[in-house]
């Protein structure tokens, strides 16, 4: 059985590394990613991990422990998502999203159980190895994002799940100024806002790890510190080049929460290192902001044509969500069926590209699976963050995720978002 435990462990590190890369086999194509049905390479690896992990658990049956409250809320959430399936117009898509949710639950369970030591062996997973596997992948994404912005182009590669983007292409995410059209950094993800959210979470974790390091007693610790420093500043620049306001806000909130936590803990060494890191971060961002001041002004003043269009669309998405909730507040329109319901009800009369989920995870969940699913999800989050065994950076990461869920939809509307969300909820 040691084979299954080791297989689950190393395959999981591989899964975490591959998660940000969108290599996939499209089973049912669609004009937008929201209605597409695809099989991702990372999903297949995760399924292998879950099989190996559960075989190991079955072999080594343990004494049953008290179930924490948040598991009851997760079960309730799952049941109401399943029930909303029967109200879906596109039931194939709804079934696909329900299966993705179950995979996310399996991932969360694996993270919760995999760190717990038992009477047979040491814990199955090493949390720091998971974090470094993810950071190694995001570092490559950060380099790619910086390259995309500086060259104002994004090449395509089907094996890595990369799509081509150019400033003059229709549908590309850009900033329009008097100096021209500027392509925002995508990394290897579907949108700069998603890339920015991933970088924001990663930067908060790395900031904590850098502040935590006190003594470098081995060459391995020296190299890990060097990697973290290089990662932090490259990721910071890549986040800047996404020009994602929600990701910027999420990072600031996460860093402030971490600062408050270090002050409360009264660890002067960590606090001093952390404040120094924040100071150098502010200096570097001020320098690069001066170089691209016209882009910053456009994003913050929000009075240009595209910025006004973006704000108008977000308000329209909120109005559409209110209409859907008003008509389907109890059980929703079915998992993954938000845009399908909009098209069915002809809430939009323009092009198919305007059929977008509401930019708020909580409203999106309410629209798709009803009020009870939303209630169970909120209670799950509350009891999860209140659990006794929390990581030191838990509140900061939780704050970042909440901001991203309040101002965007990708954590619930896209397959990557599901697994990313449950990965970090499991880690905290």
Characteristics:
single chain; 428 residues; mainly alpha; 2 domains; two-stranded antiparallel ribbon; 4 strands; 4% strand
Alpha plus pi helix count: 17
Structural class: mainly alpha
Number of strand segments: 4
Largest sheet: 2 strands, antiparallel
Secondary-structure element order, N to C: HEEHHHHEEHHHHHHHHHHHH
Kindly give the count of domains.
2
Low-confidence stretches: 118-123
Question: Into which percentage range does the β-strand content fall?
Answer: under 5%
Please state the oligomeric state of the protein chains shown.
single chain
Q: Which range best describes the helical content: under 10%, 10-25%, 25-40%, 40-55%, 55-70% or over 70%?
A: 55-70%
Report, as a whole number of angstroms, the end-to-end distance: 28 Å
Radius of gyration: 22 Å
How are the strands of the largest sheet arranged? 1-2
Summarize model confidence as the mean pLDDT.
88
Shape: globular
Q: How would you describe this protein?
A:
The protein has 428 residues and is mainly α. The chain has two domains: 1-121 and 311-386, no CATH class; 126-301 and 395-411, no CATH class. The chain contains 17 helices and four strands. The strands form two sheets. It has a two-stranded antiparallel ribbon. A two-stranded antiparallel ribbon has the order 3-4. A hairpin with an 8-residue loop joins strand 1 and strand 2 (37-40). The radius of gyration is 22 Å and the shape is globular.
What's the helix and strand layout?
Blueprint: H1 2-18, E1 24-28, E2 37-40, H2 41-59, H3 69-84, H4 91-114, H5 127-151, E3 174-177, E4 180-183, H6 192-212, H7 219-242, H8 245-265, H9 268-291, H10 293-301, H11 305-328, H12 338-344, H13 361-369, H14 371-385, H15 394-407, H16 410-413, H17 415-427
Antiparallel strand pairs: 1-2, 3-4
